[in-house]
């Protein structure tokens, strides 16, 4: 027996933005940045404060970075994943095994990158997770660092 039009009630439509939110919130940050270029509505959604906060909450925790040493010994940068037991933790980066022998200070940090001020007056950007670093060129103008 066929159902009448009255018996076949359509399911209320869910807003496309809700589906889009649930998909985009699961993307890694780099993929999310690329998705912002798809269209204006995606860009608007991914710049909304509540979306950014929800996306940030879903991201994995970053390792704890510690610094060891004093002015008379080689300093080390060590990173640990706090989700691991102490027995499983390993050093992600030891600076005394890499380029940066000698003293340095952490001048700034942003999104896991460290800006190190070396004892020779130069600066190095370091990513402790990937074990990559690069020394910044000296200023051509001789200006002050702000």
UniProtKB/TrEMBL annotation:
SUPFAM superfamilies: F-box domain. Residues 12-47 form the F-box domain. It comes from the Eukaryota. PANTHER family: BNACNNG10540D PROTEIN, F-BOX DOMAIN-CONTAINING PROTEIN. This is F-box domain-containing protein. It comes from Eragrostis curvula (weeping love grass).
């Amino acid at each position: 027996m066929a159902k009448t039009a009255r018996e076949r009630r359509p399911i209320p439509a869910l807003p496309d933005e809700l589906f889009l939110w649930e998909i985009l919130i699961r993307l890694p940050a780099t993929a999310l940045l690329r998705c912002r270029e798809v269209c204006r509505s995606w860009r608007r959604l991914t710049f909304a404060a509540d979306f950014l906060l929800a996306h940030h909450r879903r991201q994995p925790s970053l390792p704890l970075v510690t610094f060891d040493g004093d002015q008379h010994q080689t300093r080390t940068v060590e990173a640990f994943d706090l989700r691991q037991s102490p027995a499983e933790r390993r050093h992600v980066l030891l600076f005394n095994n890499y380029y940066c022998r000698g003293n340095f200070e952490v001048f700034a940090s942003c999104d896991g990158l460290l800006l190190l001020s070396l004892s020779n007056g130069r600066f190095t950007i370091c990513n402790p997770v990937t074990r990559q670093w690069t020394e910044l060129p000296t200023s051509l103008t001789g200006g002050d660092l702000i």
